Recover the amino acids of this structure.
């Protein structure tokens, strides 16, 4: 693992090795090296590449190409697949596709429970050396005893439990935040407690078992406060949020499936609490929850469209434009959120020949038609951003070029 002190987070082409300087210069015919900025390979611990089982939405190849375009050289892929990676045989099917098609490091999660059904624990011991961590993402583990047993067994294997926190008894068929927009437009809402309630439970179980615990895509102010207090007590907990929860809230909703994700866009107070969380270190990393769907699954409005948006190609430009350039956080803090912290927590190494090259002065509008991902649904279509990735290098090999 490359430590923060060993890794130069922000540099220019002339800081690369001579061989890498030549590779970059020859590929892009560049002469004014000082104009461009080099970043270490970003790491996203929460993506959905949909293969095996749902390749009409995304494949390992299309997803990893999209990630490379976004400047990512490592991603962790969630287990809501078919077959679910809940056994050695099933995760091998996924790994074989990764070995064949991935252009960057693609690290599979294994499911916490068989079929992600919450009824029986998966083969945690057999899967431990074949996965990056354990998660039932897309579904919350409803049973307290099931989660306790999972934490005990995962801790014995030195593996994280990575939790999608959602209490099914509090959903009531909701599909957007239970706030002002839902009430004014006649939509069924998802209450905040459906997220923070399970987090509160799992913090207690984490303290009891000592298991390393990571919370997916937090979206509420209560979640931030619970995790902040748990960290102050020394609980072995980390968490992530996503760009859309930092830059959007329920006031930005439109009657369009590209604004539907789970958890939903919350209130402005929630968004401000999340921003405070990335400023003070409560939130450890930003992940995209890149979740592509076919067009006909996302064009049915807020109620009937599938949950999920794409985001791995737009994350850095959005965060740079609307958080760094506006002074909300520094570029150094953004690198902690995108590079250092996810790699440290999930033990994902980085070498000096994993990087991307950006023109931070180039301005453009986000156009889903230009995405390499098979999914095109984004709430950020038409947003003006700064920063275009010209080239991504993985293990010294160019894996994306503009």
């Amino acid at each position: 693992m490359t430590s923060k002190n060993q890794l130069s987070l922000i540099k220019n082409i002339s800081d690369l090795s001579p061989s890498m300087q030549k590779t970059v210069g020859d590929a892009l015919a560049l002469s004014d090296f000082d104009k461009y900025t080099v970043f270490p390979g970003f790491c996203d611990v929460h993506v959905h590449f949909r293969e095996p089982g749902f390749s009409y939405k995304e494949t390992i190849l299309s997803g990893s190409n999209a990630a490379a375009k976004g400047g990512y050289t490592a991603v962790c892929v969630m287990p809501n697949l078919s077959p679910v990676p809940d056994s050695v045989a099933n995760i091998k099917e996924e790994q074989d596709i990764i070995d064949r098609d991935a252009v960057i490091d693609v690290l599979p999660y294994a499911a916490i429970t068989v079929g992600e059904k919450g009824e029986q624990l998966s083969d945690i011991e057999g899967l431990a050396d074949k996965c990056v961590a354990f998660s039932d993402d897309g579904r919350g583990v409803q049973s307290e005893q099931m989660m306790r047993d999972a934490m005990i067994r995962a801790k014995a294997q030195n593996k994280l439990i990575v939790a999608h926190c959602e209490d099914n008894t509090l959903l009531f068929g909701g599909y957007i935040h239970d706030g002002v927009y839902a009430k004014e437009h006649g939509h069924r809402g998802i209450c905040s407690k459906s997220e923070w309630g399970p987090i509160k439970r799992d913090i207690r179980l984490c303290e009891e078992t000592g298991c390393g615990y990571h919370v997916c895509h937090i979206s509420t102010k209560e979640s931030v406060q619970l995790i902040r207090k748990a960290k102050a007590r020394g609980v072995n907990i980390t968490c992530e949020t996503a760009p859309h929860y930092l830059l959007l809230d329920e006031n930005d909703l439109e009657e369009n499936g590209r604004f539907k994700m789970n958890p939903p866009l919350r209130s402005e107070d929630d968004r401000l609490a999340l921003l405070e969380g990335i400023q003070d270190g409560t939130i450890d990393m930003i992940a995209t929850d890149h979740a592509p769907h076919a067009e006909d699954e996302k064009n049915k409005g807020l109620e009937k469209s599938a949950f999920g948006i794409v985001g791995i190609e737009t994350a850095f430009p959005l965060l740079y434009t609307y958080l760094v350039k506006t002074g909300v956080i520094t570029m150094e803090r953004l690198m902690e959120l995108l590079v250092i912290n996810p790699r440290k927590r999930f033990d994902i190494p980085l070498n000096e020949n994993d990087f991307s090259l950006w023109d931070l002065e180039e301005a453009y509008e986000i156009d889903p038609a230009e995405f390499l991902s098979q999914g095109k649904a984004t709430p950020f279509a038409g947003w003006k951003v700064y920063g275009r990735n010209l080239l991504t290098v993985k293990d010294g090999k160019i894996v994306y070029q503009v």
Summary: Residues 1-7 have pLDDT under 50 and may be disordered. The first strand starts at residue 37 and ends at 40. DSSP finds 14 helices and 14 strands in the chain.
